[in-house]
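Q: Olfactory receptor, please. Structure only.
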Amino acid sequence: MTPGELALANGNRTPVTEFILLGFSSYADLQELLFVAFLLIYAITVLGNLGMMALIFTDSRLHSPMYFFLSVLSFLDICYSSVVTPKLLVNFLASDKTISFEGCVVQLIFFVVHVTAESFLLASMAYDRFVAICQPLHYGSVMTKETCVQLVAASYAFGGANSAIQTGNVFALPFCGPNQVTHYFCDIPPLLRLACGNTATAGLVLYIFSALVTLLPAAGILTSYSLVLVAIGRMRSAAGREKALSTCASHFLAIAIFYGTVVFTYVQPHGSSNGTNGQIVSVFYTIIIPMLNPFIYSLRNKEVKDALERKLQVSIFPCRVPQGYLPE
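A: Structure for Olfactory receptor:
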């Protein structure tokens, strides 16, 4: 019996007006240290992703579909990390760890929107690499600016639809106490455990739609990269194979970390977000991955490193740049 069902059985029908985010409260002696660590991670996340976006927008050599998607990925990483991390940082230092019922709803809405959008954006990026490597002669006509914008819009549309379904699925249930969320943000599995009444249907909805928005894009990604690997194996040029593998390897690494942790949290029949283990797993896809993505893509991408070097040269040695000339 869940805590919510137990409260209902005891006759408690008082509506919950706020939740208490317990977060990492079990580590009472490490609150200040955890605050500093997560603040540093968040600062690196925001600065790293903003820097990636600025580099792509200001360097004309990076004005291609792949880097357009990468800039959107950086934007999404900033967004869903910012939905979760600031409240977590406040709770590390504050004695009052409450969040209003409405605030919890809003947090869940925006979190699901951006995480779902990222799932489909990663699939769009895989499709872009498939067309670039397997159909290079048609790349310019297939991956047009309009197509790229439509794929991003579709990613957000799926995110909005999934958010509406999942948020409605949770908060259509009554909450009559207790109100202690065993997590550092308003996530679906710990909220369902607090709901009064039978949550079997809500749990099934969570499982089905979480599977749809993770496994379907993942299937598309695996199909795209399987075809890409076949095409790379047929390349006669060693340099071409190395460049193609380098570009795809960084993408695939980010995908493996993201989908691995999301599937582990939401798609298991019995979930994994109970207690500390679930929180640690969630830290990877809500806080760590948004920080790592800019470094994964930049450190393994020669074009990004070259663009960064050009910007640094202009910034550090401006007198060496001929007047009236700005490098591309």
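A: Brief note, in case it's useful. Strands lie at 18-21, 98-100, 180-181.
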